[in-house]
Design a protein that fits this description.
By secondary structure, the protein is mainly alpha-helical. It is about 85% helix and about 0% strand.
């Protein structure tokens, strides 16, 4: 019984920590710790919901994957949705700081990509947040659908 709650909690913490570490790591690599912490404070209204949303997705995915509360027959597109949402969120977070590594990017031939990401930083973050919400919605819908399938069985017990 305890594992049904601990596994999703651990997934939430791990998912949130990983995406937050990715964000802080990229910013720290680009400009240092002081800049990374100031950017986190500046963009907190975008970054924190993205981090929490990804953690919630990770928790919901573990509930679906390990069938913790309902014997689910199919997880649907939950895994691919989480991957797409995570990728979008990571790209949105990179958009915050990519303009600081433009000194190196021309060598790599990526200066146009850096300026594009920098210019559309806020929209990328909003898209990342929207993808998180869509991913959460998809997983909640799968759980709801499976619960509805079990409802006739639960009523007979």
């Amino acid at each position: 019984m305890v594992k049904r709650f601990l596994i999703p909690l651990a997934a939430f913490l791990l998912g949130s920590t990983l995406i937050a570490s990715f964000y802080i790591g990229i910013l720290t690599w680009a400009q240092g710790w002081d800049y990374a912490s100031s950017q986190l404070v500046r963009d907190r209204w975008y970054v924190i919901p993205i981090i929490v949303g990804f953690g919630v997705q990770a928790a919901l995915y573990t509930i679906l994957r390990f069938r913790l509360f309902i014997p689910i027959t199919s997880t649907g597109h939950a895994g691919s949705m989480m991957g797409a949402s995570g990728g979008t969120s990571a790209t949105a977070m990179i958009a915050c700081c990519i303009h600081h590594v433009t000194d190196v990017l021309p060598i790599l031939g990526l200066s146009a990509a850096a300026s594009f990401l920098t210019r559309y930083q806020r929209p990328f973050m909003l898209v990342g947040l929207a993808m998180n919400l869509i991913g959460i919605g998809v997983m909640l819908f799968v759980l709801y659908r499976e619960r509805q399938k079990l409802q006739p069985i639960l009523e007979t017990i």
